[in-house]
Amino acid sequence: MVMPLWDDNPLKLPKWPIVTWGLIAANIAVFVFQLVTPQPEYLSFAFGVTPANITGVPITKMPVPPYVTLVTSQFLHADILHLLGNMVFLGIFGDDVEEAMGSLRFIGFYLTCGIAAGLAFTASTPHSMLPLIGASGAIAGVLAAYLMFRPCQKVLVFIPYFIVWFVLRPITRLDAVWVLGGWVLIQLWHISVQSQDNVAYMAHVGGFAAGAVLFPLLRYRTVRLFECIREPATT
Asked: 20 to 30 A from 67, CA-CA: which of 46, 89, 134, 157?
């Protein structure tokens, strides 16, 4: 698996990606609260998506209706690595997608993709009593939008496996279509082999599918799909 570090494309519009930054800040703030609260596990069960609560009678008394957890779960994370990985992806790809549709549409797009992810997870394990938490489902929708928006954009990535073969080049630049396309294939592979690693791959697929459907509808009319943006060749 590769870890994106940065994308080469500067923002074109004179607007700060306030929603992307706001979402990152909100996720960090909630995680800090998880760290200081005396019962962090309670937050996961109370505000995470528990499929059995969605499909039937809630198994426990909850502070919010079960369907509200489709939103609240998006701001909870299991540990610092879980949070860091999600925020890196959101920070790199979210600002471009926000630029392509505007801030108000982007917040609706992001939350809707997260809801779709929660529903996909629920459909895959309707009787599970284990809660789903994390922003990765919503971010999967952002990745789908970025892939449709700028598939040829260069992304700086860290590839751990390169250390074995190319010691001097663990960091390289790849087209977004290879980075994000590879991410999609990894999700599908884990689903096909039924990986038991506590990662909700079906939620990722649900969020990605929602992003692919919603982005063409919510983008600005001037934004073209699958436009390859490359630097002009020089001689």
From this structure: 89
